[in-house]
Amino acid sequence: MMDLRENGPETATEMTDYNFAYLDEQTKRMIRRAILKGLAIPGYQVPFASREMPMPYGWGTGGVQVSAATLTPEDTFKVIDQGADDTTNAVSIRKFFERTAGVATTEETSKASVIQTRHRIPEEPLREDQILVYQVPIPEPLRFLEPSEVETRKMHSLEEYGLMHVKLYEDISRHGAIATAYAYPVKVEGRYVMDPSPIPKFDNPKLEMAAIQLFGAGREQRIYALPPWCRVVSLDFEDYPFEASKADAPCDLCGADDSYLDEVIMDDSGTRMFVCSDTDYCASRRAAGHVGAQGAIEQEGAA
Amino acid sequence: MIQGETNGPLLSVRGVTHMYGKRIGCADVHFDLYPGEVMGIVGESGSGKSTLLNCLAGHLVPDRGEVLFEMRDGAVKDTVTMSEPERRMLGRTDWAFVHQHARDGLRMNVSAGGNVGERLMAVGARHYGGIRAEAVDWLDRVEIAESRVDDRPTQFSGGMQQRLQIARNLVTGPRLVFMDEPTGGLDVSVQARLLDLLRGLVREMGLSAIIVTHDLAVVRLLADRLMVMKDGQVVETGLTDQVLDDPQHAYTQLLVSSVLQV
Amino acid sequence: MIEIEGVAKTFTLHNQGCVVIPVMQGATLSVARGDCVGLIGASGAGKSTLMRMIYGNYLAAEGRIVVDGVDVVQAPPREILALRRETLGYVSQFLRVVPRVPTLDVVAEPLLVLGVDAEVARNRARALLTRLRIPERLWALSPTSFSGGEQQRVNIARGFAHDYPALLLDEPTASLDAANRDTVLELIEEAKARGAAIIGIFHDEAARERVCDRVVDVSAYTPRAA
């Protein structure tokens, strides 16, 4: 997987005009150093010199740079956007690395060695030989309450995290419960408070996993990381404990009642259905014979 | 509660000097502040009183001098040389700072309850119900109705914002309060109410306070002692009523005689 | 209780050509517990000035003013404040209070500052206000809106709230009707009886006769023109 040996330009199979995986070797080394530092200090935001990528900010430039620095020619790459392999964003990034790195790609979670994700963690538990790369829009969890970067850095260095609970307090006072449903703040290894990227809070318990997790924020020029099985605790109050909630229904296609669901509006009269947001998980369950309430009617590709 | 409970001063200021380049901010300031004492610092704009206050509160680093503070465990520490985490911890627990403009001391996009609760959460409170009850109690003490607990400060009048700022600062039971023109910019009627509130809180909580103002009426009502500054130097100190009624220094006499009589 | 020795006072007017005005020199006076001394002398002779120096409100230029062991001329502010809180009471001619504070609390404040239970302090305040004939309907109002005579009585009630061992009274009976004047003199007699050392200024000769054990003419301390 992550191989610190230099990959010569000759390993790029098709696009000889570009270096392997688009970025030049010096840039990849710089990013790898940031990644290693991030792994050494779990949850700490490491600044890095983010490059211009051939896609707009907000489309995963941070994740793409981390993936580029992580991929080797032997890797098998998977990209998901909100759990789906087939959205524009996922397809574009997958194609980008097919062309610039020539790596194998897959839609099957278990076959991938590097998975780039936007806003989800796959349902299937990841293994220690896998790497999960997150696209992060705003890496600073304190940002919405404290606009000054100088001040937030100081707050991190001095572990002044009272403000994070102010946000949760405001949630409860306004909505009667912690209404933060995604990008739910966590404390890593009892030290740094971290934004887990806009994953649903349903995914928060999965942050303690066997795989390495890398977070890249291109516009904000930050990389942070979680080494395998490091302790990740979702912030909460004693009387309002954290809950990893999801829609209270089974998947209408595969019948799964343990996966995070998307709500899909079917017609103008408001008919709706719930389907797994993780398309690979749903497809593999259906392939194994599981059927949900509408699974018999639906044919593949309908979702 | 009453001063004299401990023998030593709460705050000892020794030769504090702050320069802005070649210009003097404040020079060689010495004084002791004992528990329960309220000291006023008066002087016109540019006299160095705010510079001094900021040096004492750890917002500015003095070029010379010591600011010795008696910690809760009785140890005396120089807040100028102590580590930043320790100083910031003091800023959230034992010290309070009331800004002239409430919006400098409040989070305007956070509810009144959240504003008051922040210091509690900063020192580890993790029970929502408890934090909220404490916030409501403090709002009541500064005469803000419980029904306003979820409103943001932007919906409050200037006087209410200032009272909210005071509640937010005092909720952790600080021992030393720094105030920078706490009644500045408020209507006279609102000022009176705030002064009364501050006097009551100072007495009930046994607070020590340092109040910077140019309003002599404010210090007469709030401060036990007075320090008069001019061009960065302390020109006169003493009992508040003595300095105001029998000023010794030329500048103080000018200051006192310049107040318009109502 | 109160020992005054060789006290002098000058005013230096820096902003009027640095004029130095000597107003008193060599003032010497001693008041024992239970004693009441009346200060007399023509208007401007320095009766109030001497009283203010004893209270620490004016700074003496030289001499010693020892009240209950504390030399007010030399003591740091916090010792004078403690003296004022616990030992030395002062009824001035003017009431100076925070606007908006109810009369009852104005009177109770000297006790609250000493840490006396709020209800005990208020009861004492109620008793004094009743004796001084301040109608109960006014107690919840700020005295700033009261008439001169009412303010004077509130001021006296406040001055007698705590049983100070030493008291300074600046014209306590001025602008009072006969009944209230009599009450104030009773209060003074009671204070003497419990052992308070009192220095007072009384223009009202009959009142002076009734409560003062002796009088001191401060004109004797007026500096001779150089």
From TrEMBL, chain A:
It comes from the Bacteria. One of its GO terms (molecular function) is alpha-D-ribose 1-methylphosphonate 5-phosphate C-P-lyase activity. InterPro entries: PhnJ (IPR010306). This is Alpha-D-ribose 1-methylphosphonate 5-phosphate C-P lyase. It comes from Shimia aestuarii. Belongs to the PhnJ family. It catalyses: alpha-D-ribose 1-methylphosphonate 5-phosphate + AH2 + S-adenosyl-L-methionine = alpha-D-ribose 1,2-cyclic phosphate 5-phosphate + methane + 5'-deoxyadenosine + L-methionine + A + H(+). Its EC number is 4.7.1.1. One of its GO terms (biological process) is organic phosphonate catabolic process. Keywords: 4Fe-4S, Iron, Iron-sulfur, Lyase, Metal-binding, S-adenosyl-L-methionine.
UniProtKB/TrEMBL annotation, chain B:
Keywords: ATP-binding, Nucleotide-binding. GO terms for molecular function: ATP binding; ATP hydrolysis activity. The keyword Cell wall biogenesis/degradation does not apply. Residues 11-256 form the ABC transporter domain. It comes from the Bacteria. One of its GO terms (biological process) is organic phosphonate catabolic process. The keyword Nucleotide-binding applies. SUPFAM superfamilies: P-loop containing nucleoside triphosphate hydrolases. SMART domains: AAA (SM00382). Gene3D superfamilies: P-loop containing nucleotide triphosphate hydrolases. This is Putative phosphonate transport system ATP-binding protein.
UniProtKB/TrEMBL annotation, chain C:
Keywords: ATP-binding, Nucleotide-binding. GO terms for cellular component: plasma membrane. Residues 2-226 form the ABC transporter domain. GO terms for molecular function: ATP binding; ATP hydrolysis activity; transmembrane transporter activity. The keyword Transmembrane helix does not apply. It holds the Pfam family ABC_tran. It comes from the Bacteria. This is Alpha-D-ribose 1-methylphosphonate 5-triphosphate synthase subunit PhnL. It comes from Shimia aestuarii. The lineage of its organism: Bacteria, Pseudomonadati, Pseudomonadota, Alphaproteobacteria, Rhodobacterales.
